From TrEMBL:
Pfam families: Prok-JAB (PF14464). This is JAB domain-containing protein. Residues 5-107 form the JAB domain. InterPro entries: JAB_dom_prok. GO terms for molecular function: metal ion binding; metallopeptidase activity. GO terms for biological process: proteolysis. Keywords: Hydrolase, Metal-binding, Metalloprotease, Protease, Zinc. The keyword Hydrolase applies. The keyword Glycoprotein does not apply.
Amino acid sequence: MSRDRSEAFGALIGSQSADANEFWLEHCTTPQKEDSATRVNFNMRAPHHQKSVDSYYESSHGKLGYLGTWHTHPEPTPTPSNIDITDWKKCIKRNPDRQLIFVIVGQKDVCIFREINGSFKRIFKEKIDD
Ligand SMILES: [Zn+2]
């Protein structure tokens, strides 16, 4: 796996049920050249990600919004790093009006995590077929 691919990330765009127990992922933003290549400088507030989120929100008349983030890991079944946890907690703080989900794409599995009672739990795991 190339270095670039292992560090890809973006925003998740979709909708959720009123009780936040169901999510519908509709779109995700993909890395662009102005994004920093290093994980340390991971910055979801890069302008083009925000622009995509805003334009989906407007064209769907508020049905679609920011749902969380996705990124890739150079390991078969991904588990969140301490950096991920810190980053996810910041995302949750910035978006107190909704429940966020966080996707990590590994080499074999894609996993989805969300915060339940103060800690991050894996709520979904599926093999990537290629
Ligand atoms: Zn990570």
